[in-house]
Design goal:
CATH architecture of the largest domain: 3-Layer(aba) Sandwich
Structural class: alpha+beta
Order of helices and strands: HHEEEEEEEEEEEHEHEEHEHEEHH
Strand content: 25-35%
Number of domains: 2
Number of strands: 17
Shape: globular
Distance between the termini: 59 Å
Strand order of the largest sheet: 1-2-12-3-13-16-14-15
Helix content: 25-40%
CATH topology of the largest domain: Aminopeptidase
Largest sheet: 8 strands, mixed
Number of helices: 8
């Protein structure tokens, strides 16, 4: 897909409403798009979506996983709501604007006051809500300017877009590989969908699971410096062979990429690692993580257009290279052996 097509897909997905437990619009888009490609889709008992692609490859699948939710509000009654996700309490200041999605359409409201320390708020200025209506901050859903994309829900609907784009490309080019996409629910409130998928055991532990995320920008991982080969998150370090595979794939294809520890949060790779899977990660650096802007006020999330395009390109090349995973990672050992042989002399216990 060219950049214009990628941006169109990103706009379509990121403009859809979502929140933990309320991913139905994003899920419907993913299912419809993937079925239009001729791919098999299925839901598990938790409502996660698994998409399967296979052409001329017999090994265990390469699995791309992204979550369909973004931190947001869930109505508890006519003028009360709770926030699902991790943001500072200062975000819930009086007058902050909120947009809810209801059966009758969009309802605009403002926060009147915070109720205690449990992320519950009282609302004013909107129509009466029904329990279960959901929403998010009143921010632009998507726009591009100066080589950057701005939106309300990049974490992680943009990751969903990256996986969908990669699946689209492998179908279009009939890539010889076995690639699955897993689109999960309620990550923002406890890695819920990923844990459900890992615990159910429907995905072989022989698979390589790559988490697709937008991850909080760090001093060593900057926006517009390329997609990130993620070596770990705040809780765990990922499989070295996965990192080697992704780095070597990028090197061989001449793709720009960063290799960094992204410790601004915990991602779904850790959930799968906890249940015995080999894991890795691909992400892009994200500004205004979880819509936390300056002064801890709501702001659009931001990523680089070139980072997003490079993310998808590296994902497609990883899918293409997946049948050669062992020879590619074996090359790392050979490189280490060459370093070893370059030593002036061998060690012995008499020195």
């Amino acid at each position: 897909m060219n950049t214009a097509e990628l941006l169109r897909l990103a706009r379509q997905l990121v403009s859809l409403p979502t929140a933990p437990y309320h991913e139905q619009a994003v899920r419907a888009f993913v299912e419809q798009h993937c079925r239009s490609l001729g791919l098999r889709t299925e839901r598990d008992a938790a409502g996660n979506v698994l998409v399967r692609y296979q052409y001329g490859a017999r090994r265990a699948p390469l699995l791309f996983v992204a979550h369909m939710d973004h931190p947001g509000f869930e109505a508890l009654g006519p003028n009360h709501a709770r926030f699902l996700g991790s943001v500072p309490q200062e975000m819930f200041r009086r007058g902050a604007r909120v947009r809810f999605h209801t059966a009758k359409g969009i309802v605009h409201a403002r926060i009147r006051r915070r109720l205690g320390d449990n992320r519950c708020v009282e609302l004013s200025g909107g129509e009466r809500l029904r329990r279960g209506d959901f929403g998010g901050w009143e921010l632009p859903t998507f726009r591009c300017a100066g080589g950057r994309m701005y939106g309300v829900g990049f974490d992680d609907v943009l990751g969903v877009a990256a996986v969908v784009a990669a699946l689209t490309a492998v179908v279009k080019h009939r890539v010889r590989t076995r690639l699955w996409g897993l689109f999960t629910r309620a990550e923002e409130v406890g890695l819920t969908g990923a844990v459900e998928a890992a615990r159910r055991g429907r995905i072989s532990t022989e698979a390589l699971v790559l988490s697709f995320e937008t991850s909080k920008e760090r001093p060593w991982a900057r926006i517009a410096d390329g997609p990130v080969i993620r070596v770990g998150d705040r809780m765990s370090v990922f499989d070295p062979a996965a990192t080697w595979f992704l780095e070597e794939t990028a090197r061989r294809c001449g793709l720009r990429a960063q290799r960094c520890l992204m410790d601004g949060g915990i991602c779904e790779a850790t959930a799968f690692a906890a249940y015995g899977y080999r894991v890795g990660g691909l992400c892009v650096a994200l500004g205004n993580y979880h819509n936390i802007g300056g002064g801890q006020r709501p702001a659009a999330e931001v990523v680089s257009v070139s980072d997003f395009a490079g993310w998808v390109a590296l994902a497609v090349e990883a899918a293409r290279a997946w049948p050669r995973f062992e020879p590619i990672t074996k090359d790392v050992q050979q490189r280490v052996d060459r370093i070893y042989r370059s030593a002036p002399r061998r060690l012995n216990d008499h020195e």
